[in-house]
Design brief:
The chain is 16% helix and 41% strand. By secondary structure, it is an alpha+beta fold.
Length: 400
């Protein structure tokens, strides 16, 4: 399957045209999988949706759809398992998009239901169902695009004929944009859109004399080759000089080809912030987790350290701003920062430091052990001397 950076890109690319526009989320599917489609139209009915094979023969589908935002629809349907390999054309009103059905090559064939999630402001949990309609088993990896989503299971095993449900918890008040879940298995994966209904799509205001065609020509959408999977772009931490903390910073390759990313540190961060890797190669669609350590040596001087963690592929870059305050005494509530101040996919783990009490206990134990060994040796020597004296007395009696 092909990953498409769809949320903002799709909305921006179709905001200024009146005709229907559609975007199929993937380029390749297996027969039996679920096709997911974004649609921008003034209205939509089931009779507007049709699928044709490479010979322009109509194919039966049972599409489900909803209008999740004014003028924006999401459509999904399951492909029949007996559909032949080849190119297919999806038509919705006067818009068309294509995809291909490819051979399974012995891997699992999964359906997902529903094909999208529409968040509810009165709820804090949603679920989705995965069904294995093929002949092979698989293990699924489930990742969130943002820390405000928390899957109860990040890995599932599924076999032929099985259905598995997964639940995801969320905090609606902390969400401000559309999100997604990445569900990968074998060489395939689904992008499950998590749609935020309260998002306001801002349209560009243009002068009346500009025609619609001129406006479309002027709209330029910049595609990024990778995305940071963080809730915000700032890390704010407070630690004592002998404390350290770490978290996992995740990034996803949005391209259909491999990507080389380089990490660097700016400002005062060199030495007080360390990374596992400075240069990584990501396969198409791959999500990479970089472990970031703050004050790893547990010996930093008191002060405020600031700078950026920068990621670049040579043509574009993304960064996380860091502010680390190393203070003499830090209250527990300051050390355990909330996820809003530590926006990585994992909220950061404080590395426990050895206390003076535990070191003192170890020292006392070692001293007592040494004393016990000395006493044991002395007793052994005394017993040996007493035995020699007793043998001397017995020998004297015999000579007499």
């Amino acid at each position: 399957m092909k990953f498409i950076p769809f949320f903002v890109l799709f909305i921006l690319s179709i905001s200024f045209v009146s005709a229907a526009e559609i975007s199929v989320l993937q380029e390749n599917y297996l027969a039996g999988e679920t096709v997911q489609v974004y649609v921008n139209a003034s209205s939509l009915a089931s009779s507007d949706i049709a699928l044709y094979d490479v010979n322009n023969n109509p194919k039966q589908i049972a599409p489900l759809f909803t209008e999740y935002r004014d003028g924006y629809f999401f459509v999904y349907f399951h492909l029949f398992e007996n559909y032949l390999e080849g190119k297919y054309t999806l038509e919705i009103q006067d818009a068309k998009d294509t995809f291909s059905i490819i051979p399974p090559n012995g891997q699992a064939v999964l359906q997902i239901k529903p094909g999208f999630i529409l968040l509810d402001s009165q709820d804090d949990t949603f679920s989705f169902e995965l069904s294995d309609v093929g002949d092979s088993s698989s293990t699924l990896s489930i990742l969130e695009s943002n820390a405000v989503l928390s899957a109860r299971k990040n890995q599932l095993s599924i076999g032929p004929g099985e259905q598995k449900n997964n639940y995801v918890d969320y905090l609606y008040y902390r969400i401000s944009s559309d999100l997604f879940m990445n569900i990968s298995y074998d060489d395939q994966y689904y992008i499950l859109p998590v749609l935020y209904p309260d998002l306001v799509v801002e349209e560009e205001v243009v002068e009346e004399e500009e025609s619609e065609e001129e406006l479309v020509e002027e709209v330029v959408v910049s595609e990024s080759s990778f995305a940071l999977l963080v809730s915000e772009g700032t890390v704010v931490l407070t630690l004592e000089p002998d404390q350290s903390k770490y978290g996992d910073l995740k990034v996803q390759n949005l391209l259909e080809e491999s990507l080389i990313l380089e990490y660097s540190l700016t400002g005062d961060l060199d030495g007080i912030v360390t990374l596992n890797e400075s240069r990584v190669t990501l396969a198409a669609g791959e999500i990479y987790s970089q472990r970031v350590w703050f004050n790893p040596q547990n010996n930093s001087r008191v002060g405020v350290y600031s700078g950026d963690i920068v990621l670049t592929d040579g043509s574009s870059s993304e960064s996380i701003s860091v502010s680390l305050d190393v203070a003499e005494v830090v209250a527990d509530e300051d050390v355990n920062q909330s996820s809003g101040s530590f926006p990585f996919v994992s909220d950061g783990t404080l590395v426990p430091k050895e206390s003076n009490t535990s070191l003192y206990a170890v020292a006392v134990f070692m001293i007592l052990l040494l004393v016990a060994l000395i006493v044991l040796v002395v007793l052994k020597l005394r017993q040996k001397d007493e035995k020699k004296f007793h043998e001397y007395i017995e020998g004297t009696k015999k000579r007499k």
